[in-house]
Structure formats: C-alpha cells, structure tokens
Amino acid sequence: MASTFVCTDCGYEATKWSGKCPNCESWSTLKESKRFSGKGSARAVGGAILAKPERIVSIDAKEQARIATGNTELDLVLGGGIVTGMLILIGGEPGIGKSTLMLQLAEWLGKTGKKVLYCSGEESAAQIHMRSKRLKVTSENILLLCTNDTDHIIATIEDELPALAIVDSIQSISLSSIDSIPGSITQLRESTNRLLRCSKGLGVPIFMVGHVTKDGYVAGPKVLEHMVDTVLYFEGEMRNQYKILRAVKNRFGSTNEIGLFEMTNLGLVQVDNPNSVFLTNELAQIGTSIGCIIEGTRSFIVEVQSLATGSNYGTPQRVVVGLEQKKLAILLAILEKNLSLYLRSNDVFINLAGGIRSADPSLDLAILAAIISSLKDTPLPENSVFIGEVGLNGEVRPVSQLEARISEATKLGYENIFVSGFARLKSTQKVRKIKDIKALYQALSMD
C-alpha cells in the first residue's frame, strides 16, 4: 500500500504534498490517497475468470437493446436509453433534484415490471418512504437498501440481480477494509472501482449520485469521470423551476446533450417545448436579440439580454450570466476597434434567458447585436435571429450545422435570419448575409 496525493480539481497525482497543484495551480487541493496492490483485495464478481485476448474483428457481439427510462428527455441525454452494464455518475448542487430524479426513475422502470434496487447511504428508510409518498412512487418492484457499506451493496446486487441499481450517494459509502473516511479520494476511487467491476461483470446498470464541492465540481471529478461511462450534470438556478440535465461525457451517445425538466410538487416533469423556456417574450425590446445554439443533437432558440449603462465607478463592470467572462471582453474589444464605439465608461451586463449555459460560438453575433441595441437605445428589427461567429478582425464566420439552425428559426416564424456572408447555403430564403460587423451595424440601421 503506497500513499499518493491527488488533486481534487484536475486529478493530478504527486508523490509528496505541496500547497499548490503543479498542474492546475489550485491551492489546497492535493489530498492524500492510498493505492492498494496485491491479490485478493477485491471481491470476485459474478464468478468472473481471467480473460484471454482475441481478435477484435472476430468478436461476435450482438447489439443490445437499450432500456427505456420512461422519460424522453432522460432517454435523449443518455443517448437513447440505459445500456446494460452502464455506470453513470449524476451530479449537481444540493437540492437541485438528483435524488428526486433517481426515485422517479425507479418508479418509471418499476411500472414496466423491472426490478430496481435503490441504495441510500444518507437517508433512513422512513425518510425515503415519506419522499416517495410525496412523489407518488407506488411500484412494488422497487427494493430499498439503507447502508453505508460498499461490499454490502455489491453483495445485494449479486443476490437480487436488479434491472437497475441506484447508489445515493457515492460520497456516503465506504469500504471497511480501507482506513479512511467516506468521501475521501481513496474511498471514492476504490468504491467506484468495485461498483464498476460489479456493473460490467453482472451487466447491471448503476447510477451513482455525486455531490458538488463549494466550487461547483463533483467531489473528486477527475478521479471518477474517467472511470464511469457517462457523466450527467444538473444545471440551473436553485430557485428556478426549470432544471437542465447535461451529458458532459457519454460513451454510448452524444456529449453536451441536454434535457429540460420542470420542478413541480410531484417531482421533475419533462418540458416538451424547450423554446418556450428560453424565450421570455416575443416582442422586440431594447438590448434583446435572438440566437440559435446546438446542444448535442438538438437546436434551441435562445434570448440574449444586454444592458449597457454608464458606470458609476472608475472601473466599469463586465458581468456575464450563462456565458464565458472572457468572451464578453473579446467582443467588446472588437466593437471598439471596428465600430469606434466607446465602451470604456459603460457597465455591460449579458444574460442568457431561461438559465441555460452555452459556449456555442454562434452566439457572438447575437451578443453584439444586443449590445449595439442597448448602446443606441433602439430595438432590433422584429422577427430577427443572429447566427454567426465573430473573428478578432470583425469578420462574421459561418458556424457548424447552419442549415439545422436556420430550419429551427424558420419553424418558429422568424423572417430575418442574419448569417455569415461566407456561408454556403442551399436556400437563401429569409436569410440575410453579412460579412463583418460593420455590415451588421448598417443592416440594423442604427444611425
């Protein structure tokens, strides 16, 4: 057994402790972890024997049918459903709905006649029963196990062989053979490794709930993310009724796929029309523009809100919600350079309506249009959508999947779609091509 020090932010491993991580330069993130070696330290799962190498082209593997969860949004995020032997980590802030979704998932599968094992290391059986009554969980196919022992959970999975197992949460369970507290790097890694072998050996998909740190990361993220098949994160403001479930890693589907849910008194309910959430109004307002983003396999129309006002302090504020902070600084510099707009004495605030977060570069044009509208105190043309990436010299560049974005905007009734003049399109109906932001300024008729 050897001791190493693992960074909880980036997963970097060092042989000795230091105050700052040499890799990501974060302070006080190196935590002691113990590596176990030798035979007999792990429990055999499903009577597995040593595998022999074989030619990959001669492997006879039939495509396995996915298990439908009973919720189309969750199925979409997972890539079409649950895969046999899949290990999934689902994270999010406390109270955002992780345990609620897991209990509802157990109910959805239980109604189809599938056995579900719900393992809780944080709540008592009485507490979970109270929550199940509130959520109207009534399936008799749900088995509840309240324990903090990882070996006990694995033994129960082997005995019951459920169609799905849920562990709530991975930070609350531990191995008695390891001398460290639950939630430590050593316990997280070893418990996840045992659950991984159990899942693959028996073909039982396992959902693991993960808590977040004060910085918003799942505790020990880089230690666990490379071990699991899929990582799902809950996004959204705590007081917002809408919650976004995003897949940031998926070996069996598209990454960055999102599912939209609404929190009600009966739990999480899927939202059938996401555009109704991201668009707060249909009338043209000052400082408001419309863009179109691609998340996974779907396109969404989103509303970009901007407020540019005189600064009351020596240093103007630059506040961004839903976008990267550096993105705003770059776009403001492009505006000043190419349009000679003086912004050094203005506070600038940018917000994506509906609580969505996106790093899609196609929003560049929509952000600039919203800022120009707020500066000039003039609304943008009605029924307009702005889709394009803006370069440092002010040129508007085409973006990926432009036809799908235009189709989504057209379907919702938008008649003026501003895109890059360099884009190659099959149809130019309702499309207005602009090559740089000077052409955008003229097209908006702001003078």
What is the structure about, briefly put?
The chain is an alpha/beta fold. It has helices at 72-78, 98-111, 125-134, 150-160, 185-202, 221-225, 275-278, 325-339, 364-376, 402-411, 437-443, and strands spanning 2-7, 13-14, 30-35, 87-91, 116-120, 142-146, 164-168, 206-210, 230-235, 242-250, 258-264, 267-270, 288-295, 298-310, 318-321, 346-352, 384-386, 389-390, 396-397, 416-420, 431-434.
Task: Explain this structure.
The protein is α/β, with parallel strands linked by helices. It has 3 domains: 36 residues; 206 residues, Rossmann fold (3-Layer(aba) Sandwich); 168 residues, Ribosomal Protein S5, domain 2 (2-Layer Sandwich), CATH 3.30.230.10. The protein is built from 11 helices and 21 strands. The strands form 5 sheets. It has a 9-stranded mixed beta sheet with strand order 6-5-7-8-4-9-10-11-12, sandwiched between helices. It has a 4-stranded mixed beta sheet with strand order 13-14-16-15. Strands 2-1-3 form a 3-stranded antiparallel beta sheet, with no helix packed on it. Helix 4 runs parallel beside helix 5. The chain is globular and about 70 Å long.
- CATH-defined superfamily of the largest domain: P-loop containing nucleotide triphosphate hydrolases
Shape: globular
Largest sheet: 9 strands, mixed
Tell me the total number of β-strands. 21
Question: What percentage of the residues does DSSP assign to strands (E)?
Answer: 25-35%
State the name of the first-level CATH class of the largest domain.
Alpha Beta
- CATH architectural grouping of the largest domain: 3-Layer(aba) Sandwich
Q: Helix segment count? A: 11
Structural class: alpha/beta
Low-confidence stretches: 38-46
Strand order of the largest sheet: 6-5-7-8-4-9-10-11-12
Cα-atom radius of gyration: 25 Å
The fold-level CATH name of the largest domain is Rossmann fold
CA distance, first residue to last residue: 72 Å
What number is the mean pLDDT? 87
